[in-house]
Design brief:
Layout (H helix, E strand, L loop, with lengths): L4 E6 L6 E6 L2 E7 H5 L10 H11 L8 E4 L16 H8 L10 E4 L2 H10 L7 E6 L6 E9 L2 E9 L4 H11 L7 H8 L10 E4 L2 E4 L9 H5 L8 H12 L17 H25 L4 E5 L6 H10 L4 E3 L9 H12 L12 E6 L1 H10 L4 E3 L2 H13 L4 E4 L1 E4 L8 E5 L5 H10 L8 E5 L7 E2 L13 E3 L16 E2 L2 E3 L5 H14 L3 E6 L11 H10 L5 E4 L2 E3 L9
Parallel strand pairs: 1-4, 4-5, 6-11, 11-12, 15-24, 18-22
Antiparallel strand pairs: 1-2, 2-3, 6-7, 7-8, 9-10, 13-16, 14-25, 15-17, 17-23, 18-23, 19-20, 20-21, 24-25
Helix pairs in contact: 4-11, 5-8, 5-9, 6-9, 9-10, 13-15
Length: about 550
């Protein structure tokens, strides 16, 4: 019997992606931005991501049995757009295949796709499911149950109650931009929360608080297409609430740090709302496992609060909880409908395109850079020594990560013992100096550095945790102003090369962690190919050396390992 291939896609307005399943098991997931080099791939269909997934599997479009889409645009006026006809979808996803008979299409509601991306991949038979994002077709928050291979949505909150848009609007108010939600979260640690955030927890969930004159007309929401079309109306309705407490006006020329109390207040409001949702979900669904997805799940401070709350014995967030992950969720829903299958347990994030040693050497030679290939042990020992003497290393090995966190496949690495590592990396990446960087630490030594509970999200750097007071002087570069860090626990079985590097660093220094931030410059997506890595290395002179597969690339022959 031939294999059955399901291609999942996100064709929303940003973070388009493709995921390929073979008989229900994940083969690959590629985010369009990584291939096109346009951050967030705004307005860009995932044609190149689709082609990359098929190429890795060695199949052509004609061998795809079903295309599953992580939206059901048929529910809203946008669905009448001719782009979503059979021929429109063929041209969008397979632009070079004019004679292709389009595979069967399965439209999966957006929040069902989000829920499935987490519930099917968490390796649990049952789970409570929480989806919090900007907007689906008509909803922004959903709670549900996963059991018997099915996702059941129990309750939804409409788009005008969007916690995702609440946080986006606050980031814009603080002068950090629509995509500045991560910056706002980092800024919050510098401030003190005050009463008055325009969101409050209520029994059974939460509500956004608006003055009567600032309500969002329901008919206005209903008449709009999804996502960015909703956002201006929701954001406009929230701005009077932002102005009701310090600071009273949107930021223009002031330093961002002046808005730290604002950020802290907004963050606290989000945490209280999500805790209330989780409490209601635990009351409704008798299971110890919480599966969390949606763009708001990228708020690692909030996820850390959920983990420490003890409401659930286990909190699972997939490595790609954003809209890029609905390609996976939609594919899983469709594959499940085709018959029984065993979905992939996702305990690592390495499902992207590979960087091989051969490709690395070719890219270095093309750029005229010296390079030398090393064996695994020699490579780990040499790079650990370079990090220990204060050098910044670009590290691109194996298959790329999925999601917005670099996890030791496309990373910039540095010494966590030196606070100057933070400053240097922020300079390299064109980031504000108050923004933190994170540690990758050996899983078996994590509790030497972190106190309290670590759960599944730490595999993917998706939950903040408290650095032990006695460890804060050991790893000052990755300890945020509030004593927190966003750790990645590195497991030997899922990334042995990265684990070996950190183990060598531990043997040299006694510290079982390195600084890890994403390998990209300001405005760029994370590097994907060897050519991307070499291009970034040549533009950023502050990066001291580069590792591509098993090859060390330097700027001069005298810097090569012996």
């Amino acid at each position: 019997m031939s294999a059955r291939y399901v291609l999942g896609v996100n064709i929303g307005f940003h973070d388009s992606s493709a995921a390929l399943l073979r008989d229900g098991a994940l083969c690959s997931l590629v985010e369009q931005e990584r291939v096109s080099r346009r951050k967030h791939a705004v307005g860009q269909p995932p044609a190149e991501a689709v082609a990359a997934c098929l190429a890795m599997a060695g199949i052509g479009p004609a061998e795809v049995d079903t295309v599953a889409i992580g939206w059901d645009f048929r529910q809203i006026p946008l669905g009448r757009n001719r782009r979503f006809t059979t021929e429109g979808l063929r041209a969008m996803l397979f632009p070079d295949q004019e004679d292709l008979v389009m595979p069967a299409v399965r439209w999966v509601p957006h929040h069902v796709a989000h829920a499935a991306s987490a519930a099917f991949s968490c390796d649990a038979d049952e789970a409570a499911v929480l989806v919090v994002d900007g907007a689906g077709e008509t909803q922004s928050t959903s709670i549900g149950r996963f059991a018997d291979g099915e996702v059941e949505i129990l309750r939804e909150w409409p788009v005008e109650e969007s916690l995702g848009f609440y946080y986006n609007a606050a980031a814009e108010w603080a002068g950090l931009g629509y995509w500045g939600t991560g910056k706002l979260m980092g800024l919050a640690a510098y401030g003190r929360p005050a009463p008055g955030a325009p969101v409050r927890a209520v029994p059974g969930g939460y509500e956004l608080v608006r003055a009567p004159a600032a309500q969002v007309p329901a008919r206005r929401i209903a008449s709009l297409g999804p996502l960015m079309a909703y956002y201006p109306a929701v954001a406009e309705s929230l701005r009077p609430g932002f102005g009701a407490f310090f600071p009273y006006a949107p930021r223009e020329a002031e330093e961002p740090i002046a808005y730290a109390d604002f950020a802290a207040t907004v963050q606290q409001g989000l945490e209280e709302a999500v805790l209330s949702l989780a409490t209601e979900l635990r009351r409704r669904v008798d299971t110890p496992v919480l599966a969390l997805a949606g763009g708001v799940a990228m708020n690692c401070t909030m996820v850390g609060v959920l983990v420490r709350s003890g409401l659930f014995d286990r909190v699972y967030v997939p490595p790609v909880p954003t809209d890029a992950g609905v390609s996976l969720g939609a594919a899983l829903v469709s594959a499940r409908e085709c018959g029984s299958f065993t979905p992939t347990r996702i305990d690592h994030a390495y499902w992207g395109r590979p960087v091989t040693t051969q490709a690395g050497e070719a890219a270095a030679a093309h750029a005229g850079l010296p390079y030398r290939r090393l064996g695994d042990e020699a490579l780990a020992r040499f790079v650990a020594g370079e990090i220990a003497r204060g050098r910044i290393v670009g590290w691109a090995r194996g298959r790329g990560e999925i999601g917005q966190r670099a996890l030791g496949a496309r990373s910039l690495l540095a010494d966590p013992r030196d606070r100057r590592s933070l400053e240097r990396l922020n300079v390299v990446k064109g980031r504000e100096m108050w923004r933190p960087v994170a540690p990758s630490m050996l899983a078996e030594h994590a509790h030497e550095l972190i106190e309290g509970r670590l759960d599944d999200p730490s595999r993917f750097m998706l939950a903040a945790a408290s650095v032990r007071p006695d460890a804060r002087r050991r790893i000052p570069a990755v300890t945020h102003v509030d004593g927190s860090a966003r750790p990645q626990t590195v497991h030997r079985d899922t990334n042995p090369g990265y684990w070996a590097l950190i183990e060598q660093f531990r043997q040299l220094t006694g510290v079982p962690a390195v600084v890890n931030t994403s390998f990209n410059l300001a405005g760029d997506p994370i590097v994907d190919s060897a050519a991307d890595a070499v291009d970034t290395f040549t533009r950023a002179k502050e990066i001291d050396l580069l590792v591509l597969g098993d090859t060390v690339v330097t700027r001069g022959e005298d810097e090569l390992p012996a």
